[in-house]
Design goal:
The structure is a single chain. With 225 residues, the protein is mostly helical. It has one domain (4-193). The chain contains eight helices and two strands. It has helices spanning 8-26, 47-52, 58-78, 84-116, 129-153, 157-197, 203-213, 217-223; strands at residues 35-37, 125-127. The protein has a two-stranded parallel ribbon with strand order 1-2. Helix 1 packs antiparallel against helix 3. The radius of gyration is 28 Å and the shape is globular. It starts with 7 loop residues before the first helix and ends with a helix.
Length: 225
């Protein structure tokens, strides 16, 4: 086998999904009482599945197996040996999925600690999904900078791939942010159109309605005590 490290990719893909479900479940025990977000999963492709908190996702499993098969075939038959392109891709995937899985572990540790120490938090804050996406994007710069410094000192294909992978992940986050902003814009436009198309009462009916709410002088004289 030319690239045994390629077997780590499907393992990390599966652990990414399972740890996401574990985090979505764990945050409900204390953390979600104080930090309210619209979505726990940032990737729009998996938001519905994660919201249901299902451990088994056939779609994700099929995608993982198909990707693993193609990736294994390319590494073993099309790009055998120490091919720099394959090493670049391996570096990118290992760093990206390693970082994502590491963040899941950090989240689980945070949720567990808050569950054991509920008195350390009080109050609540609601964060928009756009803010959640931006925070996730900003956190990636903590990984981008050391990889960039390492790439200067040791520009191997794996290190350069890791740097490129984080840069691509940041770009993907920016795409999610743009997609979310476009969705909010469409919803606002649809709501404005719905308000504009709803029937508006005319001035005469407004006057009649207002008059009907005000008692006349004769009614006042006969019905009031």
């Amino acid at each position: 086998m030319h690239h045994p490290e390629s077997l780590l990719i499907p393992v990390l893909m599966l652990s990414d999904y399972l740890l996401t479900v574990a985090g979505a479940r764990a945050r409900e025990h204390g953390y979600a009482d104080h930090f309210k977000t619209q979505h726990y999963e940032l990737n729009p492709l998996w938001q519905t599945a994660i919201a249901r908190k299902r451990w088994f996702n056939p779609r994700h499993l099929l995608i993982t197996l198909a990707f693993a098969a193609v990736f294994y075939g390319v590494g073993e038959y099309l790009l055998p040996g120490d091919d720099p392109v394959f090493a670049f891709v391996i570096g990118a995937l290992l760093v990206v999925f390693g970082a994502v899985n590491g963040r899941h572990l950090a989240n689980l540790a945070t949720f567990a600690w808050i569950r054991r120490h509920p008195d350390t938090l009080s109050g609540s804050i609601a964060m928009s999904h756009a803010l959640t996406l931006w925070l996730s994007t900003f956190q990636l710069f903590g990984l981008l900078l050391p990889l960039a410094l390492l790439a200067v000192c040791a520009p191997t294909p794996q290190v350069l791939g890791g740097l490129g992978g984080v840069a691509i992940l940041i770009a993907v986050h920016l795409g999610w942010i743009r997609r979310w902003q476009q969705r909010l814009k469409r919803e606002a436009t649809a709501a404005a159109a719905a308000r504009a198309s709803s029937p508006q009462p005319d001035a005469a009916s407004d006057s009649a309605s207002a008059d009907s709410c005000v008692p006349s002088s004769s009614a006042s004289a006969t019905n009031w005590p």
